[in-house]
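Customer escalation, tier 2.

The customer says the design service returned an amino acid string that "doesn't look like it belongs to this structure." They asked us to rerun it and document both sides in this ticket. The original structure tokens are below, unchanged.
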């Protein structure tokens, strides 16, 4: 028995739609740290436990790797030679990396100018064909479905059910780490695949059925040995400028600094409503200002650097704690979906500028003197 972790398909093989002959394409994704926030609860004077599942530490820097290992593995099993996706950035980064690993072609459609620099560099570096469109993510998603109708392309967006199957494993890891489900699970909602996948995972973990899982029969209900008995309340946060779940209708011109959730026509619309309703949860919204403030706060107080879309789970949580819909004594897990290094421009724009001084000891000492804690 060795302890070399080789990715989530090998780890959770009995709960995923794979067979012994499935050729697994993996970069050892998953197994991300669940980090307890030790300073933030004190700072906001709330008696709660907050644990961050830092998905930014996946191989390409976001949770998209969990879904992509499954989607590309199943594409290869079916004999595909090319995959395609529309993306706000992280899906294309993951698709490009896993396609490179599998030795197949990858086409990505991204909205012109609205993709964070780190993500674009990943898609380019891994050798995918990057197609910028004069349109937004929703236009890209529609076009991907149109071209895949006639061309031999395997779609790896989350309309591909294998994506959600891979992504559900986050809930297994959390239940194993805690020995139970948290009281609340909070996360960003864009295309809404992730909240649906979390709910499928938690439901399987406790052996309960959910409308969100179209193919529950593929996975044996996860026997936790009595670890978990109840599922968490699911809370989804959207940026105010891209909040179809808050408006109760699709949004045609989504706008937010959190480009990963700049989506107005979420594909997993029904599944996400089922997750919210079955769990007794809710959706809430945050402004771009609140999102950026939370990103900085988390980086400053906990040493965790997530991207803006991920920070909405902290921004929203602070709001829901403030208005006491999440009460004292609660245990909350929040998914930090992607790494802050993905979007260096946004990080630099909101941080204080470096000092520029002469290369002398006096100049350095002057800056230290001004900035030393009193
Ligand atoms: C994809 C993504 C989201 C949104 O997830 P959905 O499944 O589309 O709701 C949030 N944050 C980051 C960093 C992402 O890459």
């Amino acid at each position: 028995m060795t302890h070399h972790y080789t990715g989530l398909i090998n780890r959770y093989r009995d709960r995923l739609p794979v067979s012994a002959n499935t050729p697994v394409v993996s970069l050892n994704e998953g197994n991300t740290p669940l980090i307890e926030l030790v300073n933030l609860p004190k700072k906001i004077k709330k008696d709660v436990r907050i644990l961050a599942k830092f998905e930014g530490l996946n191989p390409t820097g976001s949770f998209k790797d969990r879904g992509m290992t499954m989607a590309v593995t199943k594409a290869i099993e079916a004999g595909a030679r090319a995959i395609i996706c529309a993306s706000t950035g992280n899906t294309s980064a993951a698709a490009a990396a896993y396609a490179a690993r599998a030795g197949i072609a990858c086409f990505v459609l991204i909205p012109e100018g609205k993709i964070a620099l780190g993500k674009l560099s990943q898609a380019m570096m891994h050798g995918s064909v990057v197609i910028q469109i004069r349109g937004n993510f929703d236009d890209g998603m529609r076009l991907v479905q149109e071209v895949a109708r006639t061309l031999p392309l395997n779609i790896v967006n989350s309309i591909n059910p294998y994506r959600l199957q891979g992504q559900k494993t986050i809930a297994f890891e959390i239940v194993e780490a805690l020995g139970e489900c948290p009281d609340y699970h909070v996360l960003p909602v864009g295309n809404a695949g992730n909240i649906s996948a979390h709910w499928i995972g938690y439901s399987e973990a406790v052996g309960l059925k959910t409308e969100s899982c179209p193919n529950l029969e593929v996975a044996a209900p996860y026997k936790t040995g009595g670890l978990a008995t109840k599922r968490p309340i699911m809370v989804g946060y959207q940026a105010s400028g891209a909040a179809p779940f808050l408006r109760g209708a699709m949004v045609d011109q989504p706008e937010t600094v959190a480009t990963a959730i700049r989506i107005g026509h979420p594909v997993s619309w029904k599944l996400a409503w089922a997750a919210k309703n079955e769990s007794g949860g809710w959706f809430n919204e945050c402004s771009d200002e609140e999102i950026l403030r939370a990103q900085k706060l988390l980086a400053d107080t906990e040493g965790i650097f997530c991207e803006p879309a991920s920070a909405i789970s902290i921004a929203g949580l602070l709001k829901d704690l403030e208005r006491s819909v999440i009460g004292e004594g609660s245990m909350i897990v929040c998914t930090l979906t992607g790494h802050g290094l993905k979007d260096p421009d946004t990080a630099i724009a909101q941080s204080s500028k470096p000092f520029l001084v002469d290369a002398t000891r006096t100049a350095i000492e002057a800056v230290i003197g001004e900035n030393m804690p009193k």
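Tier 2 assessment: The sequence is consistent with the input. Residues 62, 64, 90, 158, 188-194, 260-261, 307, 309-310, 337-338 surround pyridoxal-5'-phosphate (CB under 6 Å). The two ends are 54 Å apart (CA to CA). Sent an explanation to the customer and offered a walkthrough call.
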